[in-house]
Amino acid sequence: MRVAVIGLGLIGGSAALALAEAGHDVLGFDPDPAARDAAAAHFPVTGDPAGLAGTELAVVAAPFRHLAAVAAETLDGYTGLVTDVSSVKAEPARLFARHRFVGGHPMAGKETAGFAAAEPDLFRGRKWVLCLEADTDLGDWTALAALWTSIGAHVVPATAAAHDRAAARISHLEHLVAAALVRVADEPLARTLAAGSFRDGTRVAASPTTLFTGMVEGNRDELMAAADDLAAELGTARRHLDAYTDWPSSISEWFDEARARRADWPPEPLAAQRIPLTREALAELGAAGGWLEAVESEVALARRPRVKSTS
């Protein structure tokens, strides 16, 4: 497949490297000459939107705040299939409504940025959301699912709305909390004593600020709802702490419940099964938290998470 990758940072660069290694004809696009120079040793690059003509797929890996310009200017008149890698999905669907568009989001990344941090195996074994709406062209969706599973990703079907709600709780909120934890611990002794718990809990606070601002700009409502839920949980914990001398078991039970839920993550997968590539079967798979590991002619190899008994 002839693929244009627009934006040659960590995610775009990694996708381009993986696709090139898989034998696809990759063209990198970036307005930054330094980014183009860094990638030029691995695949052809251009800074001219006219050079994108003739490619079959455009993978938009530009920062969120640049998506509108990419849709209206860089890809003006583009007739191929378009997908993106943004961590929010409802807004890109609106911006690319005039294109053949299927939203996507690889659940992978690092704190480091730029093409120098890119690696072709970044997505292997990682989940990659592909948005499946009522009006999504199933042929386009299946072609992308086949492409991303071919580089080792596990494709999860989901609507944009369902993705944005989930992402607010397992990614966007974590960036906000990590920044808050850094700010709370900002004193000399605390920083000297900080070890594993601080490192793990604050890792994403080292991410580029533009990454988090894009999350806020594109998913503000869901992030506020998630922040409200977090505040309610912290309020419950605070009440348990206040009553500790009279009811010491309450905070322990609250923590034990969270510990048990964390111990069940990541979910254990069931045996792989083949499912038909129909809208209904894919939607049911995604709603159950399942994913595709390979796409064949009319079926896909899928897995679902094991649901543990609560009895």
TrEMBL record:
Q: Where is the Prephenate/arogenate dehydrogenase domain?
A: 1-273
* UniProt keyword annotations, A-Z: Oxidoreductase, Signal
Q: Which PROSITE patterns match?
A: PDH_ADH
Q: Does the keyword Oxidoreductase apply?
A: yes
Instruction: Please identify the protein, giving its name as recorded.
Output: Prephenate dehydrogenase/arogenate dehydrogenase family protein
Q: Secretion signal: which residues?
A: 1-20
Q: Which Pfam families match?
A: PDH_C (PF20463), PDH_N (PF02153)
UniProt lists the family membership as follows: Belongs to the prephenate/arogenate dehydrogenase family.
By its UniProt entry, which InterPro entries does this protein fall under? Answer: 6-PGluconate_DH-like_C_sf, NAD(P)-bd_dom_sf, PDH_C, PDH_N, Preph/Arog_dehydrog, Prephen_DH
Origin: domain of life: Bacteria
